Amino acid sequence: MKREGQSFGTSPAIETKIVNSSGAYFWLGDLTCEYDEYREPKAGTYELVLKNPDSKTERTLKLMQQNSGQYALSVRNFADMVTIENIRVESQKEDTTVTITLVSLGDYSSFTFPEMSINLMGKRLSADDIAMLRVRRILFGEELPRYDHSSVLLESMIINPSNAKIQVISNLLRILKEKGYTMEQIRGKVVEQLILTGTLQEIEDLTFVVENGVIKKVCLQGYRPKYYANVEPTKIEINESVNI
């Protein structure tokens, strides 16, 4: 029985969101926004169609093209290093359509150099073991205890992988979340990091379980580069409870 002046609190509602795709977001270098169409007209050529992009996005794209730079592209579960071949702008009355044509810098799906293993404190760590440490560094910022010269070498192998096309970024989830990016944008950047650092060749699943805006669980399934035709690539799996 409820007495006068007594109240019973109710638990706040928990809003759960499952993020298992990057939505319509893409990353091109430091630029990220939504696309309306994505096409691959031929191998190594990609097209992004933006309808009515804001003036800042148009200006940034044109500057990137003028700089003739090499940029990391991330879209869906895919990432590649590209150059901007062409930007076509078409306007009709109130509508503007921008088509970005990107060209791959090469076939990064074939990783030429098998990575090294290392002996640490009497234990052998394979290239796949080191890749797992790198995945955890990228996602969660996990640091290694320092023991001896071998641990210094291991640290270098984690942050400077031999097949990387971009620099490894530590603690990426927290960094991007604190900058206010959406969960889909964060997911897209993680795809870029995992693939273009040479850590994974293919991502089968990357899911965030989000409660009231907080990442509570990260699930990853992906495959390492396949170095030898007769050896299946190693599968990397993570199911981690977090609070980010």
Task: Write up this protein.
This protein has 244 residues and is α+β, with helices and mostly antiparallel strands. Helix content is 24%, strand content 36%. It has 5 helices and 13 strands. The chain has helices at 55-66, 127-140, 149-159, 172-178, 183-196, and strands at 16-19, 25-28, 31-34, 37-42, 45-51, 71-75, 78-92, 95-104, 118-120, 123-125, 202-211, 214-223, 235-241. The strands form 3 sheets. The chain has a 7-stranded antiparallel β-sheet. It has a 4-stranded antiparallel β-sheet with strand order 1-11-12-13, with helices on one face. A two-stranded antiparallel sheet has the order 9-10. It is globular and about 70 Å long. The two termini are 40 Å apart. Mean pLDDT is 91; it is low at 1-5.
Number of helices: 5
Low-confidence stretches: 1-5
Mean pLDDT: 91
User: What value does the Rg take, in angstroms?
Assistant: 21 Å
Structural class: alpha+beta
Distance between the termini: 40 Å
Bin the strand percentage. Answer: 35-45%
What kind of sheet is the major sheet?
Answer: 7 strands, antiparallel
Overall shape: globular
Helical proportion? 10-25%
Strand order of the largest sheet: 3-2-6-7-8-5-4
Order of helices and strands: EEEEEHEEEEEHHHHEEE
Oligomer class:
single chain
